Amino acid sequence: MTTMGKGTIAQISALAALAVIPLAVHNDYYLHLMILALMWVVIGSAWNLLAGYTGQVSFGDAAFFGTGAYTAGLLVIHWGWSAWWGLLFGGIMAVAIAFPFGWICFRLRGAYFALATLALNEVLRHVATIWESFTQGMVGVMIMQTYISKLPYYYIALALAASSIIIIRLVLRSRLGYYFLSIREDQDAAESLGVNTHFYKMVSLAVAAWLTGVAGALYMNYMGFIDPHVVFSLHDISIMAILVGIVGGVGTTYGPAVGAFIMVLMQEMFRTAGFGYIKAAAKFTDVPFLISASEQLTKGHALGFGILVVLVIRYMPNGVVGDWGKLMTALRLRKAGTTK
Amino acid sequence: MSFFRADNLVKHFGGLAAVNGVSFEVNEGEIFGLIGPNGSGKTTLFNLISGFHKPTSGGVYFMDKRIDGLKPHKINRLGLVRTFQVVKPLKRMTVEDNVIAAAFARAGSLREARQIALETIEFCGLTKRKEMLAKSLTIGDRKRLEITRAMATGPKLILLDETFAGLNPSEQDEAIGLIRKIKASGVTIIIVEHIMKVIMSISDRVHAINFGQTLTEGTPSQVVSHPGVVEAYLGEAYHA
To answer: Averaged in consecutive runs of 10 residues, what is the pLDDT profile of chain A (340 residues)?
Structure first.
């Protein structure tokens, strides 16, 4: 009971800390990174529900993310609605795609299902590119953002991130959660115990798609611009969702939340070549090696992610949260070693 | 009206007839033994009855309802549940959570499911292990968990597939006790078993098959003295 109390206190203080950060940090750039990280908490948690808890790995989360984003954007373009309706309808549209997709593709197991999600991702990206009369194709969708300040977006993203974690916790404590886990552990056993495995896999996919679609709609509202290559991106969205889950900890409630912050930081570090410090150092010292290093780092972000995944799978297969104890002991041992 | 009936079941895998025209009836409340040497089609028969395979021809009737071709989870909801010869524990879940997942078959809320699970765990004698992860159980306890989970779904008929394989003699005696207890609680049992001592001591009636076909059916003593069974299943040594 005391541990449960401790857990609740930790959760509330983490939430409180996140709520006051923007009051202390007035830097728009850091706020921007925080908003992205919170958005990735939603997507990562959704991916984790399907892959980590139900055992159905998706390689195509961008399908649902892009659907949500486009729903929000096209509501503005074609019907003149507020893009904020996307938070509702983006989720609904993602489910509308996920349900029939799941009905057909959950006949496939394991890697074959993962490949089907990859295909869905690509199909939707091409549809968004080719159907120019409706989606404006490669031109993309541009809308006016509601707020100039980043603060409202920050709090909306925080609310969505907190809600998605609460939703997943509620799901795990219900019939759904037990059924999802039993499907992950052994599909035939679950089926023999009266679980309609096909249907409940679809439910898990629908919840994941809904959350991911909502995150996509938030992205449209926040960024004000999307095009098919951004929101249906295989490596920037679908693979990133997997990385968030794996680095944070597959099958742990808070893994994706931690993974989201780590991965957004990593992504930014590669994009800006060490937050611009290497470039600054190059300018300052005038060492040509540093200039080329900063250029290579920017180009090599996919390689960097690849190396990261290999390291995580090799040394922390359960992610930062799942292998937290292991990580701490390793650090403590090293410390003890150096003091000797 | 019959409680359970398998009618002329046939199952082909490619050119091989794994089950070839097997019929039998099971009465409510009895323990019905199914014996036969390795590869004789017992597990295939179980897969046909529980919905994991669709019969090539023939029918399965449970409480006057035709159930062949239904999905396993639908068959489970009708009150017919199976266990697996190669046990399938939900490894990264505790014993209690394993049974709760099963108990949801007849519970509306988690509280109700937990209640049913704990009662079933107590009934099957796993209370001491309920906090343990299923993957850390011994083979004996895994088999027991398999039965506990099946019982938690509230079955009228339970199919036990080689529950005794791999158990030591004292575990076997415990398992016999559990099966008798299940029968006493009003659940009908079809059991596939290799160990003659077990099948002879607990079955009310026994059905013997070989090469996917019926050899004979009757009381344990009738079946064990049938020449076909002696030759095919027990071997020449038993004859002498």
So the answer is: 65 87 87 95 96 94 97 95 95 96 93 95 96 91 90 95 95 95 95 95 97 97 95 91 92 92 89 75 76 76 82 85 84 64
Within 8 A by CB and 6+ apart from B11, the residues are B17, B18, B19, B41, B44, B48, B53, B55, B56, B212
The CA distance from B15 to B22, in Å, is 18
Q: Which residue of B has its CA nearest to A170?
A: B110
Domain co-membership, A289 together with A169:
no
Q: Can you tell me the distance from the alpha carbon of B38 to that of A245, in angstroms, rounded to the nearest whole number?
A: 45
The reply to whether A97 and A212 lie within a common domain is: yes
For chain A, say whether B3 makes contact (Cβ under 8 Å): no
Contacts of B81 in chain A (CB under 8 A): 192-194
Yes or no, beta carbons of B93 and A181 under 8 Å apart:
yes
Find residues 153-212 of chain A whose CB sits inside 8 Å of chain B.
Answer: 173-175, 178-179, 181-182, 185-186, 188-197
User: B73 to chain A: nearest residue by CA?
Assistant: A194
Pick from A181, A188, A196: which is nearest to B101 by CB? A181
Query: How much is the ipTM here?
Result: 0.91
Is A204 found in the same domain as A135? yes
Residues in chain B with CB shorter than 8 Å from the CB of A191 are: 52, 71-73
Residues 6+ apart with CB under 8 A from B53: B11, B44, B47
Collect all residues of chain A within an 8 Å Cβ-Cβ radius of residue B96: none
Q: Report which secondary-structure segment, H or E, holds A334.
A: helix A324-339
User: Is beta strand B31-35 parallel, antiparallel or unpaired with respect to B16-26?
Assistant: unpaired
The four Cα atoms A280, A311, A324, A47 give a dihedral, to 10 degrees, of 90
- Of A271, A290, A310, which marks where a domain is finished? A271
